[in-house]
Specification:
The complex is a heterodimer. By secondary structure, chain A is α+β, with helices and mostly antiparallel strands. In chain A, 50% of the residues lie in helices and 13% in strands. Chain A is globular. Chain B has a five-stranded mixed sheet with strand order 2-1-10-5-6. Classes of the chains: A alpha+beta, B alpha+beta.
């Protein structure tokens, strides 16, 4: 059998991978929005075990200025920025603005409700956890992970691939189904970022701290676990943005269609296999 | 429309749709479905292990106060008089040996002192040194009947609508060796704001389980029927009964 050529349609994403991909997408959308809702109840992050304003790394506040106008502020590592309407003093989802870290448009629910935010967050935390565990176990059994995991032999190809992306090189290094940078990205998100965001979320819970105290301790304590949890969310949002840019730069219809149906039209330089 | 503008518009309209959905408030049906996660958490995480115990050096001198205001109830004012001499704590319901404790009796029982972290559901935490009677001791003396499944704590405080604060634990959670009927905070008797004269301390769960101003402990086979029956004041406001996460 001949190797597939550019222009050929190939079955690229298994039902397992497609289902897991969209489950993660939904779960992460709900988790980010409900997480921001929960964050609003204590809109600051400390690099310490218990709450400690002397170890504050991020804080959102609101105050009245000299002319009695409300001002929202964001303080990162002691540097304060005015962020009225964006952060600190924002839309409260009830037709006005309030002292509120993140605005109604990006929280779930829109109005301030810690109880409802927790209901969404704890439910979709399970969705994300079960989806990632099911995917990793099933993909390992099906040997799908071989074409996805970054190997030592891929390391020398990372720089040439990046140069190709920057148009400083005409051809990408020869590769399989995923190029070395894709492998690096997917390996890190599946084996590092998503497991860590689940673990840091668990670590800030008193019931888990009682069972797995070393986990909370290793992260620097409860408030620090909350800080890591938020940091990982920021990393995953940045990851999502890069993912979107690349999806749209490399044939969005073909890419999205393949993640729905599994069928993908090979482009120039695309590879198959490991 | 160019691609960038299309993407931006699409994102904005998606977010707007989400927020208007949320604005119409979740129906209780959706809440019930989402609430399944709590059952999973209660079974999978449960009450296992022990909360971390801190040294005196880690203790916060000022322990943050949150929740409902200090009770203005006349019963509370009466109990407070003459150094709490009129305070009574009945332990009753589904027990073989109901008993009503005075504060002096509670103070005469073996005490446990532990500096533990109070994790608020809002996301902050504070370390206090709590001293008091392990609830397990009180339960052992009361001898719960086999039908008793919950320990219900009735409190002196009420919200602005007059709804009384109450809280409940499963028997197993209540008998956890770190679950305390706390009498002292940071080597001094509890002050009114921190729940004097007797408050619950449940370091394995979030702070709202640690009810202040306890006036009666009732063993029950179900949550109290007279109230909204979700097992506690905050539970009736939509918070989970299992608060280990």
């Amino acid at each position: 059998m001949n190797d597939p050529k550019p222009g050929d349609r190939v079955y690229r994403h298994s039902f397992l991978a497609r289902t897991a991909h969209w489950a993660w997408t939904l779960a992460m959308l709900v988790l980010v929005m409900s997480g921001l809702q929960i964050f609003n109840a204590a809109p600051y992050l400390d690099a310490s075990d218990k709450s400690d304003p002397t170890h504050r790394v991020l804080a959102f506040d609101a105050h009245m200025n000299a002319s009695n106008q409300p001002v929202g502020t964001t303080t990162i590592f002691g540097h304060t920025f005015v962020t009225t309407h964006l952060f600190g003093y924002t839309d409260n989802g009830q037709g006005g603005e309030s002292e509120r870290a993140f605005p109604a448009s990006i929280t779930l629910p829109a109005v301030q409700s810690l109880a409802d935010g927790r209901l969404w967050h704890l439910f979709f935390g399970w969705v994300l956890t079960l989806a990632i565990v099911t995917y990793l176990v099933a993909a390992a059994i099906r040997k799908d992970l071989r074409e996805l995991i970054l190997r030592p032999s891929d390391l020398p190809k990372l720089l040439p691939m990046q140069l190709y992306y920057f148009k400083l090189r005409k051809e990408p290094p020869p590769h399989g189904k995923y190029n070395p940078l894709q492998k690096a990205a997917y390996t890190v998100v599946l084996f590092v970022f998503i497991p860590l965001i689940i673990l840091t979320g668990l670590a800030l819970s008193p019931g888990i701290d009682a069972i797995a105290g070393p986990l909370t301790w290793v992260l620097g304590g409860r408030q620090f676990a909350r800080t890591w949890h938020f940091t990982l969310m920021s990393i995953l949002i940045a990851y999502f943005c890069v993912h979107m840019v690349l999806v749209f730069m490399t044939g969005p219809v073909n890419n999205i269609w393949s993640m729905i149906t599994g069928w993908y039209k090979l482009r120039d330089h695309d590879g198959v296999g490991v | 429309m160019n691609r960038k503008l299309f993407v931006a518009t699409f994102a904005a309209s998606t977010l707007a749709a989400c927020s208007s959905d949320a604005k119409s408030a979740l129906t209780d049906k959706v809440r019930d479905q989402l609430g399944w996660a709590e059952n999973l958490n209660r079974v999978v995480i449960g009450t296992r292990g022990n909360a971390r115990v801190y040294s005196d050096a880690d203790v916060d001198r000022v322990v943050r106060v949150n929740g409902l205001a200090t009770p203005s109830d006349t019963r509370y004012a009466d109990a407070m008089r003459d150094d709490w001499r009129a305070y009574r704590l009945p332990v009753d319901g589904l027990v073989d040996r109901p008993h009503t404790y005075t504060l002096a009796e509670l103070r005469a029982m073996p005490q446990l002192a532990q500096a533990t972290r109070h994790d608020c559901v809002e996301g902050w935490s504070v370390i206090g040194k709590w001293r008091g009677v392990p609830l397990a001791t009180v339960l052992a003396m009361a001898q719960p009947k086999s039908t008793a499944k919950y320990v219900v704590f009735h409190c002196f405080d009420k919200d602005d609508d007059g709804t009384e604060y109450y809280e409940s634990l499963g028997i197993h959670q209540a008998a956890h060796p770190q679950t305390l009927l706390a009498l002292d905070l940071n080597d001094a008797p509890l002050d009114a704001d921190h729940g004097a004269p007797v408050r619950l301390r449940v370091p394995t769960q979030l702070g709202y389980k640690s009810a202040k101003w306890v006036r009666r402990i009732e063993l029950a086979d179900a949550f109290p029927n007279t109230l909204l029956s979700k097992g506690g004041y905050w539970e009736d406001q939509g918070y989970g009964w299992y608060a280990g996460i």
